[in-house]
Amino acid sequence: MFARTLPLRFGDCDPSGIAYYPSYLRILDGAIEDFFASLGAPRNRMIDEMRMGTPTLTLNLMFQRPGLQGDELDIAIRVVGLGRTSLDLAHTVSARGETLFTASHRLVATSLDTHKSCAWPDDLRTALTHHLEKTNAHDPAT
Questions:
Q1: What is the pTM of this model?
Q2: CATH of residue 45
Q3: 66 found inside a domain
């Protein structure tokens, strides 16, 4: 599991001080960027050297409680599936000891040159496999 704590800022909230849900997506994307950087694949390397992107194929969020301005968001990212070109992540975002929302998320490795899916590079696949929760792996043919 990868964990990151990020603040819920004034600009992330509506006028009542409750998190504006599109802000969650931006914050979550930043945590995923940090996750890939921790694997040795910061976005600038992925784009400039590896010539690959990781667009979202599916994203399913389940909101449970509102986030409030000033909350410290505890973000947990788990790798629950790794295919030839796909990556399944499970996210849990909490604050004040309570889960605010969970998400299931599938990313796909794509070539920035052809805009088609591509296999994960060996070094990145090895790093992702290290984080893979074995009990939930999906079909490696995807």
A1: 0.88
A2: 3.10.129.10
A3: yes
